[in-house]
Design goal:
Layout: E1 12-16, H1 24-36, E2 40-43, H2 59-71, E3 77-80, H3 96-101, E4 105-108, H4 113-123, E5 127-129, H5 133-137, H6 142-153, E6 158-160, E7 169-172, E8 175-184, H7 185-190, E9 204-210, H8 214-226, H9 229-232, E10 235-242, H10 252-259, E11 267-269, E12 282-284, E13 287-291, E14 296-299
Parallel strand pairs: 1-2, 1-3, 3-4, 4-5, 8-9, 9-10, 10-11
Antiparallel strand pairs: 5-12, 6-14, 7-11, 8-13, 13-14
Helix pairs in contact: 8-10
């Protein structure tokens, strides 16, 4: 697995919109925020486009932006401006061989999960499930900011911790080790049956989501169970599941207990990464030690 070099003040950040659009004012504000942190900024064409109301430009334009940012030797890191929908539409347009030759920091979450799966599994590039410019950096929470810069710059052992007084909780005790993979549950489910479907054998699976009813979470988890994805993994990290409750029937936690607990893999929950603020940045693709019993998540330098 290729681990990209860190991010330093004065470096150039390429901003892309591989999924949903933002307004010109918001894109300009995003650029100004990064410049205010001391970075040079290159904005992708997609950051200023809208197509069909929910896409930041046509598929070929959004894919071209990503390819060009990887190919540009002056760009040190690529951060997505927001999520939404659209990454799966342009996955086949990405130049895997070009990206392999130009590994660099790539950051995003939510719909960007699809690109994490592609980069981790096809390019063998470690990526970062972390804050996006428009979604998180315009009002950059201090914990989120500290976690982001710590994780993208630290190449030795990294202990991933929740904010103080926000306790990681244990569902199934035990210890597991493996490559950290995953992201948004809906996107993981959406890529099943495609060349990009998640590989979980021998790995630590992280999942999170937002705005899904418990029955929908149940359906997607059941899909992973039937595909053998939960049985094959070594351990499970349940991230933030914002707005995933209903007034009737099971809670989302009861769904996890009903489906995940019987698999008897070391499992923790209430891990603060996902559609939440503050949020922990995760280095996807790197080796993770999950000590569920003692509620510790450590990224190892091997």
């Amino acid at each position: 697995m290729m681990i990209p070099k860190g991010l330093n003040c004065g470096d150039t950040i390429g901003v892309v919109a591989p999924a949903g659009p933002v307004s010109k004012d918001r894109a300009d504000h995003a650029k100004a925020i990064l410049e205010g942190m001391g970075f040079k900024v290159k904005m992708g064409e997609s950051c200023y486009l809208s197509y069909g109301g929910y896409l930041a430009g046509e598929d070929k334009i959004r894919a071209k932006d990503v390819n060009q940012m990887f190919n540009d030797n002056n760009v040190d890191a690529i951060i997505c401006i927001r999520g939404g929908y659209g990454c799966t539409r342009m996955m086949n347009l990405l130049d895997i061989e070009l990206i392999k030759k130009n590994p660099k920091i790539f950051v995003g979450y939510s719909d960007v999960t699809a690109l994490h799966l592609l980069f981790n599994q096809k390019v063998h590039l470690a990526t970062y499930h972390g804050p996006m410019v428009s979604s998180n950096m315009l009002d950059f929470n201090s914990f989120t900011k500290k976690s982001f810069f710590y994780v993208v710059n630290e190449k030795e052992n990294i202990e991933l911790k929740n904010p103080q007084d926000d306790e990681i909780r244990v569902m199934v005790e035990g210890f597991a080790k493996g490559q950290l993979v995953g992201g948004n549950l809906a996107l993981i489910a959406a890529t099943m049956g495609t060349p990009y479907e998640i590989e979980t054998k021998g790995k630590i699976l992280f999942i999170e989501d937002i705005g899904e009813k418990p029955y929908s979470i149940d359906r997607m988890l059941t899909q992973l169970v039937l595909a053998g994805k939960l049985e094959e993994c070594e351990g499970i990290i349940l991230g933030d599941f914002a707005d995933c409750e209903d007034d009737e029937g099971f809670t989302s936690f009861e769904v996890f207990e009903n489906i995940i607990k019987p698999i008897s893999k070391p499992t923790i929950y209430n891990f603060r990464s996902g559609h939440c603020d503050p949020m922990v940045t995760l280095p996807l693709g790197r080796v993770c030690e999950l000590d569920a019993t003692n509620r510790r998540v450590t990224i190892k330098n091997y």
